[in-house]
Amino acid sequence: MSIQLGQLCSVILEQHFGINVQKIGNELYTGAKSLKELIKSTSLSKNEVSRALAVLLKFRLATYEIVKNKGFSEYSLNIDHILLILRYPRYIYYMQSKYGHTTALLVEELLRTGCETATYLISKSVLNSESRERNTVIEHRDKFIELIQGNFFIRAILGEHNDELAEAVRNDPTLLFQKPEIDAHELISLQEGKTLVTTKDAGFYWHVNFEKFHQHFRDAILYQAIERKINSNAGECFKYFLQSMYLRTDPWKPTSNPIPFGEIRSLCEEQSNNLELIRYLEQYIAIILDDPLTMLTKYSDTGGGQYIVQMKKVFEHLAWICIENTIMEKFGAKAARIFRVVRMKKYIEQEDIQKEAMIPSKEAKQLTYKLLEEHFLQIHTIRKAGSSGTGPAKCFILFYVNQYQIVILLMEMCYKALFNGITRSSYDSSVNRRLIDKSQRLESVIEAMKERGESEEYIMEILETLTPPEREILEKVKIRIKNLYSAEIGLDETLFLFQMYQYYQLNKV
């Protein structure tokens, strides 16, 4: 764990949960601690520390483990889930674009509360919706059940009988997506403002299943890569391969089980209206097979051919592309050429680099050692046979590339850039808070005036209370914050790609 990652986690916690949760998060970042240790190190009261820990546990940003023979619990920080807070708007946008406004409201509400029962979550979602009709409750209930069936919501292992539930889930994982008992009459009562002592699904809590969203985001990267390199028909063809893969293979396996050609053709004919894809299906598969990304490989010729989806290999190639683009942007085309030469040759001497890259000797040396200094290249020394000593004349110096190490380096850059962006955005917002509040108040007043049918002249007079210099400052601040937010989204997408690469490198299953 790095300093950059720690700073990023700290500013995220402070921005979303306040200073006390940030203090507890900073302490837990260095290692697991007990309640007594946290009270001592943070100088907060027991009540404040307990509340902060409750927030972290509710949002799955921390975990606890009972220490055997000591009678107390130790708390640990879940760093991966803290970083996912930056991805919350993306989850909501995905649901909005794919499944509609109601499902987006449900997901947004569960992300906001962290953990909730179905009945109370649906009632809160209905309150946030524009409609107040009784059938709105039924619609939200049905959408909630669809989200469980689609594995977007997952059962939380909480409550008095959590040990028994955890044991049952180990034996039968489908219990995590078991439909809860939701009473429509209870939902209507809550909508009408009545207080309920208990509900039929009391004790059945739900979380957002981030893994399911990440599966869709990962698949979207693959579709977009194929669409950019070939065309939309090839992207649609690959969708059917993934659809078939999930019927016979765990979605997170590095390689799929063999997929028969006949099954892909059947899926195309049943689900697609694309006559061109159906007609030239074999040719599109052949093009995907020949693509350097190696998304598909042929397993055998049995039954018209059997194919394997190569998740691990494709993310290795995508990581290489991202690394080369970074070097191109940071050091120029010649440095990127040197990097590609070293990567292709695996181990190469300095003199051979300039020959292979066709770059003048002095410039090649400068760029090579610049890449070495920035840790995009590494060196390996081999002692010459029969030589003694350690001087450069006594050994071969070979340059090579360590992809995993470079990915970690670029992830650190992403953490630092995200921290800088969030900090700058918060600074701009706080410095110009008076102007932003004034602008928002004016907007609400003008909206009310328009509803009342006030004259344009009167509305213009009210607008003039915001002076031209103030308007100019406000516009600049809005543009800067918007650009910083766009950069944050782009950085998170890059970080997600590297996380997928890391996942497949570290998991050998």
From TrEMBL:
GO biological process entries: DNA-templated transcription
Primary location group: nucleus
Top-level taxon: Eukaryota
MF (Gene Ontology): single-stranded DNA binding
Tagged with keyword Transcription: yes
Transmembrane feature ranges: none
Keywords recorded for this protein, A-Z: DNA-directed RNA polymerase, Nucleus, Transcription
Localization: Nucleus
Domain spans labelled RNA polymerase III subunit RPC82-related helix-turn-helix: 7-64
DNA-directed RNA polymerase III subunit RPC3 winged-helix domain sequence ranges: 323-401
Alphabetical list of InterPro entries matching this protein: POLR3C_WHD (IPR055207), RNA_pol_III_RPC82-rel_HTH (IPR013197), RNA_pol_III_Rpc82_C (IPR008806), RPC3 (IPR039748), WH-like_DNA-bd_sf (IPR036388)
Domain RNA polymerase III Rpc82 C -terminal residues, every copy: 174-318
Cellular compartments per GO CC: RNA polymerase III complex
Keyword ATP-binding: no
Function according to Swiss-Prot or TrEMBL: DNA-dependent RNA polymerase catalyzes the transcription of DNA into RNA using the four ribonucleoside triphosphates as substrates. Specific core component of RNA polymerase III which synthesizes small RNAs, such as 5S rRNA and tRNAs.
Similarity field: Belongs to the eukaryotic RPC3/POLR3C RNA polymerase subunit family.
Quaternary structure note: Component of the RNA polymerase III (Pol III) complex consisting of 17 subunits.
Name of the featured protein: DNA-directed RNA polymerase III subunit RPC3
Organism: Phlebotomus papatasi
